[in-house]
Design a protein that fits this description.
There is one protein chain. By secondary structure, the protein is mainly beta. It contains no helices and 8 strands. The strands form 2 sheets. Strands 1, 5, 6 and 8 form a 4-stranded antiparallel beta sheet that branches. The chain is globular. The two termini are 14 Å apart. The model has no long low-confidence stretch (mean pLDDT 92).
């Protein structure tokens, strides 16, 4: 992020009948993006064919020059054709 930010909302939906996947979003350092980071939620979320909006986070603060990485941990019996995840962030003033 070019400036410190706070995650305000995450929208998600899986495209494909009866499909699902478990995911989380990691906050990682820009200099070492391949290294693990801090999960946004303490437990993974499940994306399904029903649109969902998440507004509660265990870690919502993204520091300047940190990046967000979506990690998919498990896929249901029917693999989604696509997974759509949208984020709304607010730049912290300062």
């Amino acid at each position: 992020m070019p400036a410190a930010s706070t995650i305000k909302r995450v929208n998600h939906i899986a495209i494909g009948a009866e499909s699902s996947a478990n995911f989380n979003i990691e906050i990682r350092n820009e200099a070492t993006p391949e290294a693990g980071g801090t999960d946004v939620w303490s437990t993974d979320k499940t994306v399904t064919a029903t649109h969902a909006i998440e507004t509660t986070f265990n870690n919502a603060t993204v520091g300047q020059y940190q990046i967000l990485v979506i990690t998919i941990e498990a896929v249901g019996a029917t693999v989604p054709d696509r997974v759509w995840i949208g984020l709304v962030l607010e730049y912290d003033s300062g």
